[in-house]
Amino acid sequence: MQLTVIDEHEVVVDARVEAGRVFVSSGDLASATGWVLKPEGLCRGEMCVPARGLDASTLELSDVARALHRAVVVDVEGGVAAFAGDPMSAGMRASIDELELPDLDGNIVRMSDFAGRKRLLIAWASW
Known about the structure:
Elements: E1 2-6, E2 10-18, E3 21-25, H1 26-33, E4 36-38, E5 41-44, E6 47-49, E7 58-60, H2 61-67, E8 71-75, E9 80-84, E10 100-102, E11 108-110
Parallel strand pairs: 1-9
Antiparallel strand pairs: 1-2, 2-3, 3-7, 4-5, 5-6, 8-9, 10-11
């Protein structure tokens, strides 16, 4: 089946589904995410993440996500998979109070101004 993998960009790859698990070739994973399986683990440039037990020829997306400390959501019927989270931020935490964004009128809104109150942040992207 054709599967659109969304990470930093969208790439259509060939995938195989078995018992609800989605497998892609290591080459397709590399083209979609930039992560290459090497003997030392999943690598992107100079950085490598240990990834024990991954098969070198085909990789299951949830195993890859687990190794990278990321989340992956797959809609087999829709033919799409999306990775979330940044492996470089594993263990790092930030507060929503640090967030500053412009409102519809261009005025800067600081989340810290609403500390102690419930806040709802709605984001939209055209892509």
